[in-house]
Amino acid sequence: MLVKNASDARLARAVVAHHRAYLVFRRSLRQLSVENKIVRAARARSRLNQIEYVKSLSPNVARDDASLAAMLLQTERLADALAEGEFRDMGLNKNAGEEALARLIHDFLKPK
Questions:
Q1: What is the pLDDT of residues 9-58, one digit of tens each?
Q2: Mean pLDDT, to the nearest integer, of 70-74?
Q3: Would you kindly state where each structural domain of the chain is located, as residue ranges?
């Protein structure tokens, strides 16, 4: 478990490691979310729960739920791309992606 005061870069690496450990599950979940309305609704509820959790960690976050959802979705997609090796596929250094993910995490967790 990461300590509460972990750096944004450490949190980014942990998120990518988690996404990498569950690649097949995450792919399947994305597909099911498109094809099955029950799974789609459950995933929406789960994301809303994540937003509420983040707000409980950072009660001074001055963003509305829609803005937080946009940041969450950006974080998810970038973490998936890093976990899947998409930067490598494009011949790009993954460090830029990891730095962008760390910035997203920072913005997501810190007050506006």
A1: 999 999 999 999 999 999 999 999 999 999 999 999 999 999 998 888 77
A2: 92
A3: 8-109
Residues in the chain: 112
Amino acid 112: pLDDT: 58
Rounded distance between C-alpha atoms, residue 8 and residue 85, angstroms = 21
* Rounded CA separation 82/74 (Å): 12
Q: Minimal CA–CA distance to 16: which of 100, 80, 95?
A: 80
* Amino acid identity for residue 110 in this structure: K
DSSP secondary structure of the chain? ---TT--HHHHHHHHHHHHHHTHHHHHHHHHHHHH-HHHHHHHHHHHHHHHHHHHHH-TT----HHHHHHHHHHHHHHHHHHHHTHHHHTT--HHHHHHHHHHHHHHHHS--
